[in-house]
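hey m, so remember when u said the tokens were messed up on ur end? i reran from scratch. heres the input so u can diff it against urs
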Amino acid sequence: MKNTPKRKQRNKPGVVLFTAVAVMLMLSILLTATVSFVSVNRTKTNDNYKSKQAYLTASSTLESFINQIQTDTAPTNDPTAKAQQKKAIENLKKLASANSGKGTTTNVSYNGVDGKSDNIGTTKITVAQEGTSAKYIVVTCETTYLGKTEKVAAHISTHSVPKPAEYTNTIELVGNGGAGYDNLNVIGDMAGINNTTGKIYRFTNNTSIYGSYLMYGSLEVSTQPLIMLKPSLVDEKQGSTVTISENLDVSNEFHINSTMARADGYNYVNIGQKLSTSNHMDVGSSGFDVDLFCCEANIGGNDYTQYGNFYVYKGAGAYNGDATFGANGQTINGSLYVEGDLNVTKSLKVTGSVYVTGTITGKDKIVCTASNIHEGAVLSKAGRDAKPQIPVSADAYVYYPEDFFMSNDTNVTTISDKYQAFYDGSNTKTFNTFASDWTNVDYTLTELIDLTGTGAKTPVTSRYKLRITSSCTWASDLSFNDYGNGSRILVDVSDSSGDIVIRLQNGLNLGAEWSPVIVVRNRSTIIDTTTGDRKYNCYFVSDSGSAITLNGIDSVTGKSQHSGSSACNYSFKGLKVFDYDTYVRMFDSSVLNNTKGNPGLPQSGFVLNPTSVDVAGSYRPKNSSIIFLFGENTTLNATDQSFFQGSFYSPQAIVNIATSGLGGLVVTDSAGGKMTVQCCAVGVVIANSFGNANTAFYVYTKPSTTSVMQNAKGGKDDYAYGYKLDRYDHY
């Protein structure tokens, strides 16, 4: 068997998902495949030409079969389509396992442009087992042309894979308890995804969310928080929403505004139970309507102003769709819909119409054209007036860091061998190991980099006190004299290093006198052709031990079960973690040439772009290849201007980033608007509970699609059935 250079270019793995494909349909695809081939002088009869024509026909037929399936099918979340995917894979296995694994062979005919059969040889295509299991299949095309035969094959492994995880929230709480936020500022979406009733979240002191908000539980608001609905950072064509599954209680000034005109599908607030206000609530603004839905309303205190429609619809239990308006100053610049009874105790201005299914008390206090007030109305609840659905549950996590640490299933993890090596004695390296090698000390790196986004590259030099080139433990064994005072440490990910896993030694406690600056450079050359993400990543993992037991997937919840994870505690002051490509753009040469010290503020002119579109004059980081994986009962405390550019996956851990972060960072939106912030993190933070302090921002950037985080979500109902194209071969 040989693998020609031309074929090697096609040896890129990819998961292909089937829609409803029965055995006869698969055979039909084989029988009717239309191939493209190179026109040649048919008078030539030399053997070289014959072999080339046979090869072109065979390879085009095989690729046509693969491409047809890839073109006609796509990933799906629809349960019916998933069942069809599973059936299709079973049918493919039946073709392969026929004749004791020798498979099924079919002759292929070709249709020319004039509807007649082209004389480009005779071809047969075979779907057979490779080895003893139908899990591994080889599809072979064999063409004979003028006595010369060529054969090509596609090697396939059938399997079920968890649905790839999508990370759309800058901060996501997984725990079943409430939380309080003081001066929390989020650029991107935020969610509390645990659907446990009775939780209460509290916003105080100018907490702001510039995106969407989804939470299961109730929200209590005081001291001027703001939700500014902005286009999705995941997809700029989508808008944003606020969803609260239980009650919203506003005691002191709450603003929900938008930067975009209303359209179906976004710009709404959806409250699953009761809205209560006692002091100033604004929803929407002129030209930027935001609709509001709830199941009971009690508007009181001072000032309620809305641009958009106000809907009060019946809900479960005692929520009868009743509304009371008794605020000092209340205006709805839109229409009011009440499915129960309406009680107006103070002047209510409505610029549109009032529709009430029940009775109206205080009709004389409604400032509205009399003909636009409708008592005993029938509400259509269609189109814009349809109440958005509150999802029964969020997309739950199935696999946890413990699975990534210990599982032997390569569909789940790629780092377990490197993690377990810390505990079986095969990897005893620490940061100090690299400090003992002079080639990694006082390391200088010069690289050509496109700093302007124009394609023109200039040499950029950056210097580091220490370089890390493989997996190791970050222990407390470095010399403070050499590595304190803000030492720059480069973690260098490459093809030779593969994934670099850095275990944080339990109890690692570094005060402000250390203030390390970690810079992660990723130059692995294997690139995901769909996302552009590099194959290998850098993982900072908790010291959770090797006694972890994976107890399988729970048949009821569909979640992985584990036990034996050791508790860990970490404390850092002034720790900063940067992606190299951001670091060398964010700071000027005076910073990059130092091996120690606080890097300070970003250089003038640097603008970070967290959106999904390019914005002139800004830098848009790629998906983050820096991943923090903290196991159950781990606690991280980061204070004193700590900053993290990377993603935290810590669904059973506590993450406290109580820090003012990195100052002077300019962030842009998709329209080119700018704001200067103090930034604690650029990435996503997923935690059981989350703590913050000080007026600092968290900015969205999603994790690399090649990281193990892509396998975190899924479950027994969330598997996609398909195959992996392992390689092509030319025999």
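this time it looks ok to me. Confidence is low (pLDDT under 50) at residues 1-45. if urs says something different then somethings off w ur setup not the seq
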